[in-house]
Design a protein that fits this description.
alpha/beta; Rossmann fold; formyl-coa transferase, domain 3; 2 domains; six-stranded parallel beta sheet; three-stranded antiparallel beta sheet; 14 helices
Length: 374
């Protein structure tokens, strides 16, 4: 099931963005084959790692010549390969773009790194916080006195794994027309920067200052913020447009409030809203504001979110092998998505995958005896 059901993706095992990209492909129906390390075999079930759901797993020693040849034979039967090693690593292993495209000229070779394949920092270690710091995003987030450390969603996943998926899909479409594959250099610094395009437009138009918590969308505006309720919960308010702000004020029963965009009186407006929301429990504000044009939602925990009536009705979260997790997305009208499948243990599908790729039983046995696969 799914729009990618005839696509085969080879994923070189890694962490974070590349597994996320592989999950997206698997959710959309692609046949994703993950190349796991031999030393991961026997490590037990991976049901609590939903980023690995929906794949087959083949355990290969990438430092063994026969292991490298095994991967190249799988490349011959694949539409795309995705990897997240430091630049030059797959070249040293003998499974870089040159070798893989020589084996399969139509192959799309997707590369995921933090800093990119080229540049002064290309070989440096780093994580999401570093990538979004360098691109100016971290400096936009948090209170005035210091940047706040966010979840690793902007660099690793939004500007990383998801952008890699978009790049690979675009190259696959192009390969259908040209008959030729290509290499995708997906860098988290590039992707994170791309996600900030709107803010750069605001800056160019004089609508954004580099001072944190002083802008409409960074917590500076009192009508785009979170407020504590009487029982310790929180509400989120996003009433940016004047008509939505008026709806909010009317439903809160407030009068004499400052003009919405009078920045000099934003502290006064924030204090009025904070006092109002602190006066009643969260459930009261849900009753008053949810489903209206006040741009409201309760701030829910990861435990509570799946049970919310809207998300429950849509099936936004699912349970797979006892683990609650986000469901595949987006929704397709004709080529619907199947239910996610629990992650495979490392090496579970080695024989089946190699057999489907044309390896004989004796070849598989010999590779196993030589320590090239497990």
């Amino acid at each position: 099931m799914g729009p990618l059901q005839d696509v085969t993706i080879l994923e070189l095992g890694g962490i974070g963005p590349v597994p996320f990209c592989g999950m997206v492909f698997a959710d959309l129906g692609a046949r994703v084959i993950r190349i796991d390390r031999i030393d991961e075999v026997g490590s037990g079930p991976r049901r609590t790692e939903p980023l690995l759901r929906g794949r087959s797993s083949v355990a290969v020693d990438l430092k063994h010549p026969a292991g490298v040849e095994t991967v190249l034979r799988l490349v011959a039967h694949s539409d795309a390969l995705i990897e997240g090693f430091r630049p030059g690593t797959t070249e040293r292993l003998g499974i870089g773009p040159e070798e893989c495209l020589a084996t399969n000229p139509r192959l799309v070779y997707g590369r995921m790194t933090g800093w990119g394949q080229e540049g002064p920092l290309a070989q440096a270690a780093g994580h999401d916080i570093n990538f979004i710091a360098l691109t100016g995003i971290l400096g936009m987030i948090g209170p005035a006195e210091a940047p706040a450390v966010p979840l690793n969603l902007v660099g690793d996943f939004g500007g990383g794994g998801m952008l890699l998926a978009v790049g690979v899909l675009a190259a696959l479409l192009e390969a259908e027309r040209s008959g030729s594959g290509q290499v995708i250099d997906a860098a988290m610094v590039d992707g994170a920067a791309l996600l900030s395009t709107m803010v750069h437009g605001f800056r160019a138009g004089g609508l954004w200052t580099d001072e944190r918590a002083a802008n409409v969308l960074d917590g500076g505006a009192p009508f785009y913020a979170a407020y504590r309720t009487a029982d310790g919960g929180f509400v989120s308010i996003g009433a940016i447009e004047p008509q939505f702000f008026r709806e909010l004020i009317d439903r809160l029963g407030l009068s004499g409030v400052p003009d919405q965009y009078d920045r000099a009186r934003w502290p006064e407006l924030r204090a009025r809203l904070a006092e109002t929301f602190a006066g009643r429990e969260l459930s009261h504000w849900v009753d008053v504001l949810e489903g209206t044009d006040a741009c409201f939602a309760p701030v829910l925990s990861a435990d509570d979110a799946p049970a919310h009536p809207h998300l429950s009705q849509r099936g936004t979260f699912v349970e797979v092998d006892g683990v609650r997790q986000p469901a595949p997305a987006p929704r397709f009208s004709r080529t619907g998505l199947g239910a996610p499948v629990s992650p495979a243990a490392a090496g579970r599908d080695t024989e089946a995958v190699l057999g489907a790729a044309g390896f004989s039983t004796s070849e598989v046995d010999r590779l196993r005896e030589d320590g090239a696969i497990a």
